[in-house]
Amino acid sequence: MSRIAIVTDSTAYLPSEAVEQSGITVVPLSVIFGETSYREDVDISTASFYEKLQATADLPTTSQPALGRFIEVFEELSKEYESIISIHLSSGISGTYQTARTAAEEVDNVDVYAFDSEITCMPQGYYVLEAAKMASASETVDTILERLEEMKRSTRAYFVADDLSHLHRGGRLNGAQAFVGSLLQIKPILHFENKRIVPFEKVRTKKKALNRVFELFAEDAATGAVIRATVIHANRPEKADTMRKELADTYPNADIDVSYFGPVVGTHLGEGGLGIGWCKL
Ligand code: MYR
């Protein structure tokens, strides 16, 4: 039995087999349609979420897990583990990490280390999988946290939304004041800077934006470094698979998968969003 438990939140959108095999505990965030709250991947699947989104005029909102839920999870794990590493979506876009930190202070019989991934989706998932692998190899908390910081330094993610108004409405788009009058006309490439989502470059069409994201990926991949990458999509699996194949054919040094923007992130990014995230191994 590993002495270190790994916890994350649902926005890592990890495949359920990986979660089960690695013994990871996932705390869900929720999407709210009208009066009804759905924990993502528990009460609502990603497919049903996008169906519901297409059928509703009242756009959903999201909420982070309650403090009490984190306390329950940490207390339960304290029965079997000495330490917990709890890895969360960027503190610049959600209060989840801060809530996990507060819960960590409330529990007595286990050491909880909350880790701000400063990103979300599968790039966050890569930290979680690495931490779980290291925990099962009996590495120490310090070694695992150092490795996660090292991964953070080489992690990149660039993404494009079909309609920026969702991010704007939810208050998750920073540094775009200049674009506000023309939110529907432009397709800026977005990325994380200092934990927040900001425009990286202003581009007029989605095609040009995605080509530029390919170029940014190429700058790292062309060095020959071993790269783990993910093409992330908001209900565009075929497009994501085409992108994955194109990248995999060009860069054999990159291990590329396809992942998705699930309900909570999809609420803010909107259907049709696409991106690539990667880190050097
Ligand atoms: C909450 O209610 O606390 C959740 C807020 C989630 C905000 C998500 C914003 C969109 C993130 C796009 C990420 C792209 C990563 C590659």
Automatic annotation (TrEMBL):
InterPro entries: DegV, DegV_C, DegV_domain_contain. GO terms for molecular function: lipid binding. It comes from the Bacteria. Keywords: Lipid-binding. NCBIfam families: DegV. This is DegV family protein. It comes from Salibacterium salarium.
